Structures are given as C-alpha cells and as structure tokens.
Amino acid sequence: MPSLPAPFAxxxxxxxxxxxxxxxxxxxxxxxxVHFAGEGLKxxxxxxxxxxxxxxxxxxxxxxxxxxxxxxxxxxxxxxHRHSAVVTxxxxxxxxxxxxxxxxxxxxxxxLEATRGFRARAEPGTTLVCGDGTTVGLWSSMIQRPGGxxxxxxxxxxxxxxxxxxxxxxxxxQVVAQSPQPGEALLSWxxxxxPEKVTHAYLAGHGQTxxxxxxxxxxxxxxxxxxxxxQPYWATGKVGL
Length: 241
Known about the structure:
The chain has helices at residues 6-13, 93-100, 136-143, 163-169, 184-192, 207-220; strands spanning 17-28, 31-37, 51-55, 61-64, 66-70, 75-81, 106-113, 125-132, 150-158, 173-177, 200-206, 228-234. By secondary structure, it is an alpha/beta fold. A 7-stranded antiparallel sheet has the order 4-3-7-1-2-6-5. A 5-stranded parallel sheet has the order 10-9-8-11-12, sandwiched between helices. Helix 6 (207-220) links the parallel strand 11 (200-206) and strand 12. The longest helix has 14 residues, at 207-220.
C-alpha cells in the first residue's frame, strides 16, 4: 500500500466504516486474532479473498484479509501474522499498530472487497492453496466457508514455533516450518507432493514464491492458467504491497 501525506491519509480514513475492537486473542507468538464490531459491516456481501484496509500510521495504509465476517451482527475478525515475532529490530508499521490495539479502541475499516482476478469461487472439487503466514486467515475462511463444496488442500509455510497452532487452524492443509529463504520450504513440499486431482488453485503471500509455485503447479497438477488465482501480499525488496 502507498503512503500519503498525513492530511490526505486522514481524509481517506474518515470515509471508512467505524469499528470498535471487541477482543484480542494471542494464538501463538506470530498470530493474533482481533475482533471488531461495526454497524457499517451489517448487510454487506462478504466472501473469502476480500480484504479491508486500515491506516496503521499517520501516513501508511495496510491491507488485511478477514477470516470471518458476520454481516448480520456486524462482527469481523482478522487473524494477523506478526512478522516482528521472528524478525529482529523495530516492528513494522503494521505490527506496531497491531500491538497498540486494545479493547474499546475505535478504528476505521476502509472497504471490504476482492480484486477481480482473486475471488472465492463456490466450485466443487479440490482447491489447492499455497502460501505463508500472511495467508493463514484466508485459507481458514475458505475451509470454514458456509456452503463450500470444495475440499481445501495444499501447503503453508510458517515459523516453526507456530506450526502446531496453524495445523489446528487449517485441517487438510500441510503446514511446514519456514526456512530463512522465503518460499524454500513451500516449494520443496510442492516438488515432492504426491499426485492428486486438483480442480483449481489459489496462491497468495510472497510475490516471488507465487511466481515460482505457479509454474510448478501448472505442470504437476496439469492445470490451465485460467484456474490458478494469484494475489501477492508482500515481496522481497518492496514495502507494503
């Protein structure tokens, strides 16, 4: 997400949906779920893959994927991946904002939408998912989607300390400990994965890994590029996609 001068960033923020933080849960060192409630969430259409945006500093925005939205009650939860839990140095703007949130705080959620090329599709068959810690909430929402007809399979790489928790969050998905090189553990699993009939695939998370994984998946699972959906959340050398 781009940065804007503070006055312009504030002008955008005030047009969002006012929400109140109603609860927080620390599930593991790297994963924190935050619960929000807001009248503006009621009556909206929601499906996995949709994202919302928060102003996390006076000038910086970040996008996050809700893992659940109740459009009747106006409740929403987001499973945040805290990069700073395994990275030395000062926290990122997003992690600093997350660490500052407390029950009762008011925030503005800007939008609830998905890009045209990365939307949840209610199709029967087996859905292959691949990603990292930033995608756990997304895959969890797909697995728990009411009325979903697809089996969700695939692989996610996360810090070793978070593997047990993520395995519980993502039944049916292989969870592997990440290595210092982003994507290395995920791609290693794909190279050795047993053959399986897959109808479509979703790849999200690290941009450079998505590019490499897409080529592997097209060959291994004999999938046409039209049924492989991709969405980078971050990339090496770039700040805040």
